[in-house]
Amino acid sequence: MFQVSLEKPGDGPAIEKLLDQSFGPARQGLTAYCLRGDVPPLPELSFVMRGAAFLCASIRYWPVAIDGRRDALLLGPLAVGQAWRGRGLGKILIGHSLARAKALGHGVVLVIGDPEYYQPFGFSSDLAAGLSLPKPVEDGRFQACELVPGALRELSGGVGPAR
Ligand SMILES: CC(C)(COP(=O)(O)OP(=O)(O)OC[C@H]1O[C@@H](n2cnc3c(N)ncnc32)[C@H](O)[C@@H]1OP(=O)(O)O)[C@@H](O)C(=O)NCCC(=O)NCCS
What is the mean pLDDT of residues 70-79? Predict the structure, then answer.
């Protein structure tokens, strides 16, 4: 019934509406937005889920720099429309996109979100312990995941927009 597909150019307005509804109009002030800068999301990792007629969910990834180097992905925003929550769509989008990111050769993914939600995918705040954000977030919400074992071992420093 619900299909995962790459975002199409015409999906932009429906995604913006979904993000406004999911994160509120002040979402541009969230720490994750500071990390994205003026850089566009990665089209090859921007997925949506559609039902018969509606766009129900969206996930996007941004490239981010760690210590000035372009080394990691930032997962999100992830949003599932209110009417479709609790049916596993969020989980499907995360699993699908992380598998694609790994297949494309990415090694490190960062996220700012609920630890209980992201832990099953391998995210942990311990893995992000050597990294710092430009603005503080609640304890435990800044997490990292290694798509390539050991990929974070050599990385530390501040996270910021990719250039
Ligand atoms: C968070 C969100 C993406 C979850 O989407 P969803 O499709 O409803 O989630 P799923 O159905 O895939 O849930 C999978 C599991 O996570 C749990 N879960 C859902 N939201 C959760 C949350 N915020 N924190 C912890 N666990 C959560 C579900 O109970 C479910 O558990 P189960 O597998 O034991 O039944 C959705 O609620 C949403 O868009 N929220 C507003 C925007 C947001 O907060 N996005 C995430 C930013 S990091």
Answer: 94
